[in-house]
Amino acid sequence: MDKRDLENMVISVVKTVYDPEIPVDVYELGLIYNIAISDDNEVKISMTLTSPSCPVAESLPAEVEAKVESLEQVKKAIVEITFDPPWDKDMMSEEAQLELGFL
């Protein structure tokens, strides 16, 4: 399996994680900034939250990490939280903006 296929699998599983306050998955919300896959299939994800005081600041990244690690092909998953750049609604996919009535 090449990195592109694995990245697509990671994205698919990340799309099963939802922000509990917004009925859209974290990927479509634009909370995932980067997915890096090493040669030995360790996955490093850089993500943000809708706000630094987000009530799921502890559980949401842990859920993303656990779901990615559940993929048989992934050796290890590490999720790092960043607030640079700060998240705003323009980072959402068109699908998410439509779902939430921003378009």
Automatic annotation (TrEMBL):
Short name of one Pfam family: FeS_assembly_P
Name of the protein described by the UniProt record: DUF59 domain-containing protein
Domain MIP18 family-like as annotated: residue spans: 9-79
InterPro entries assigned to the protein according to its UniProt record, in alphabetical order: Fe-S_Maturation_MIP18, FSCA_dom_sf, MIP18-like
